[in-house]
Structures are given as C-alpha cells and as structure tokens.
Backbone:
C-alpha cells in the first residue's frame, strides 16, 4: 500500500523530473518518479534524438536508471506529461512499450499514478494497463 502522502510526493518528483525533459522534436515533455523496494525514488524524463526512433520515454529512463542502480522491485510510479510549454493539466498514460518494461520489475497490482499539475490524479494498476502481460 502506498500512502496518499507518498503519491503526492511522487507526483511532485515527476513534475520536477519533467523540467529536464529533452524534447525539441515533439515539444512534448514527460517526467516520472519511480518508487522502488529500497525506498529510493528514481526520476526519469523523455530524452529525444535527431534520429527520432532513438528517443527514450520518461518511464523507461526511470526504469533503466533504477535497474542500473540494482533495483529489482518497482513499487509505484507517477507520470506527468504535456506539451512542454504548457502546464500538465491532463493525465498522460504510458505507452505500450513502457508498460511492458515496467511489468518486468513491477507486480500486477503496482500503482501507476497519472498525475497533473492541477492537484488531481488518476490511478491504475499495471495489470489494468497491460492485461495478459508477456512473461517468460
Ligand atoms: N513519451 C514518453 O516519455 N512516455 C510515454 O509513455 C509516451 C511518449 C515521450 C516520447 C516523445 O519524446 C514524446 O513523449 C512524444 O511522443
């Protein structure tokens, strides 16, 4: 169970992470904050490339940073995204690829917090976002 206080903290961290988004091509900035079993929070931002297909989504930036630090259990993630010049007032659900990457280290009931800068959020579980997850 993730407390309401922790959810709000993750949203604040994701808003801060979004400020480091490098998104000159799409103009769409995403920030994430990933809580892991150690209690540490890892930030992620989308990092684009002139070769567009090499872009890394914000969720995968956080996931790979956490895994590189040795984390193997993801407990919750907050995601905040919107056009870079705007405040994030709408939710930004993760893309299909990021759902699959999160499922590598996150349980079916892991909360995915879709935050905004308006003080509201929606919550899903990973399995709601990715039913029938592929696993080996
Ligand atoms: N993006 C993310 O960071 N996360 C997602 O789940 C969907 C898309 C980024 C990739 C690209 O830099 C921009 O949003 C527009 O697609």
Residues:
């Amino acid at each position: 169970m993730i407390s309401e206080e922790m959810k709000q903290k993750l949203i604040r961290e994701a808003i801060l992470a979004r400020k480091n988004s490098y998104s000159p091509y799409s103009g769409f900035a995403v920030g994430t904050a990933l809580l892991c079993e150690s209690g540490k929070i890892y930030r992620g931002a989308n990092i684009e490339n002139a070769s567009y297909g090499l872009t890394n989504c914000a969720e995968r930036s956080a996931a790979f940073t956490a895994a590189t630090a040795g984390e193997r259990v993801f407990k919750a993630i907050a995601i905040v995204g919107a056009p870079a010049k705007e405040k994030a007032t709408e939710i930004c659900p993760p893309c299909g690829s990021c759902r699959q990457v999160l499922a590598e280290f996150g349980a079916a009931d892991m909360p995915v917090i879709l935050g905004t800068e308006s003080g509201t959020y929606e919550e899903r579980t990973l399995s709601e976002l990715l039913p029938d997850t592929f696993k080996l």
The mean pLDDT is 98. The longest strand covers residues 74-83. The pocket of tetrahydrodeoxyuridine is lined by residues 23, 26, 28, 30, 46, 48, 55, 57-59, 94-95, 98 (CB under 6 Å). The chain has one domain: 4-129.
